[in-house]
Structure formats: structure tokens, C-alpha cells
Fold this sequence. Notes:
single chain, 3-stranded antiparallel sheet, elongated
Amino acid sequence: MSNSVPAAVLAHLKIIATPTFDSFTRAPWLKSPFNDAEWTLVIGKQRIVLNWGVPLGESVLTDKKHKRLLDAFKCWVLAQAHPKVTNGRLHDDGHIYDRVTRVIVNIDYMLLHQESLGLGKHGLAAVTENDFKEMLRAMESASSNVQALYDWQPRLSAWLNSLVLKYRPQLAGALRAKPILRQIDTPRGDWELAPDKRTLIRWRAALWVGGFYQTRGSTDFTHTVNTLKVAAIIYRGTLRGVSAKPLTPELGVGAVERCYREREAVPVSSFGG
């Protein structure tokens, strides 16, 4: 990916943030008034609901003092099918959906890094080309947006540590009541997150006490982490971050045994003539 891409993105943001471009406030697939705090987008058969009232600094993005930033974000989404951005090319619904969701994920990245980007105080004025390059580098170095832009595993690890602190007085009791939490069936080489067994057991106990395990979502374990419930906490300040995330195997509790019975061997007789 060339270094000219971030400059192009910044150029688009500057264009769509200009008040004279009223056409960037409309799109046939926007089913809500532009100024509404909650949007419904219907692109082909795909439906997207966006709640713009996410935390920003000491207030929320929909606060009137953040109107210029909010309008820029909204126009950035709507601009994805605008001839000014597509150079006059018309795209099908699938392509538009991909472009729109990519922009929403990029906005989420900026919201997750709002403090370092200075969004709450300066809006887009403090965002530099280097900031976009950093975002692009993150996208190139990870296998998915979940890791690249939502930084799922590091944020999950930090949240789990805070959960242990929150429920510390109850952990010992949980481990006595549910000794299965100490039983680790995932081979050490397959662990993705836990640094050691002690930490893993504490994480499991804290998740159990907090009610973050569910009895569905996996055929390998009787109890797995409800990642949707966890994501609703970790990514409450994003537009689309609140969705189910990849399971971390070592957090699974109660391995499901699979027994495959082989057919009994049929005796073979040799007859000589």
C-alpha cells in the first residue's frame, strides 16, 4: 500500500467536511434524517444501525461542540457512493456496502484512539497523515480488522486483568465451587492470550463470577466466553465494535469428549487349494 493513500483519505475528509458540499449529506440508502443521532442504512439486503452518541472526551460525539467532527464522520460514510469520491463511477450494492463498512471501521479506530489523536479537543484538525499511516500499517500487519483496528486480544487481556481486580474477593470461592475452572484442556502451545496458568485460572474465575460464560457457541467446550457481552463493554465507545469476537481457546471450560467407535475388524481367512 503506497504512502499516497493516507494523503488521499485526508483529501476526502477535507472535501466532505466543507459545508458547501451539501450533496454529501444525502444518499438513497440512508433511511434516517442526516442530523439524527441514530442512523439506519439499508444497502441492498444489508441493514446497518449506527448510534452516533458514543463517548468522546468528557461528553459524547453528538454534543453540539463536536458538530463539525460528527458531520465530517457522517459525510465520510455517505460519500462512499458519491461521484466526487468515486470519480464518477457507479458501484453495485455489494461494493458500496464494503466501502461503507470499511469507513465505519476506520472511524471506530479513530474513536478508540481518540485521546492520542486529540479528537475530543481538536477534532480532525490534529489528525495527521502519519496517524493514517499508522492505521494502515496496523491493517497490513494483522489478519483481520478485529485484530488490526479493534485490537481485540490486547484489549481483552487488559479488560480481563481489570475484571480480576474487580472480583478478587470472590475468586477463591468460585474456584472451590467450580473446580472445573482449574482444569485446562487446551494444550499450552495453542494458547493465544494467557501468559501463564495462574493468570489463566484467575481470568476464568473472574469471567465465571461476572457471568460472562455461556453454554453455546462452541462444539469443543461446555462453557465459552460470551464475546458479544464482553465486546459491549470493551467497545461501548464505537459504532460497530459491539459484535461477536473470535473465541480464545484457553478460556474454554469443560472440553467435550468425542468418542469415535471403529468398526470391529472382520476376520480374514486364507484358503489354500
